[in-house]
Design goal:
The chain is of the alpha/beta class. Helix content is about 30%, strand content about 20%. A 6-stranded mixed beta sheet has the order 3-2-4-1-5-6, sandwiched between helices. Strand 2 (about 50), helix 2 and strand 3 (about 70-75) form a beta-alpha-beta unit. The radius of gyration is 14 Å and the shape is globular. About 35% of the residues are buried.
Amino acid sequence: MKTLYLLRHAEAEPLAASDSARRLTEFGLAQAQIVAQFCDRRDIRPDVILSSPFTRAAQTAYAVSERLGVELLIAPFLASGMMAMDALDELRAYREFESVMIVGHQPDFGELIAILAGLPSASSLPVRKASLTALNLHLLQPEGATIDFSLPVRLM
């Protein structure tokens, strides 16, 4: 894998029967479409999209997958509360792909980006809702990546 895209889920309703059942708001659905259009216009087409099983992440991932015509897989390891080192282990199963997009949650993604970019282990980068980050992977391990870009949806 050369490129890892991290897409944080779009805006979700504040309350639902459970945290995992929270759906995207109308604004969140629009944000997901903006991200999908941005990826399409910029020819960002990962080989596969992996999503948290949480509804808000799956809805965000589906919008991008549908627009790009890219396979979407639900990946339980991306559920809210993901541990960065566990994610690295799980992502090794996809290393034969040129690029992979993962859709999930904060602070999980901030911690994963910090570890891959070699930032202090206690740091977590703020990752806005519906933002897209691209990492150039040299190795799928701590300090194994550089940040190509991190773009909030409002700039797409």
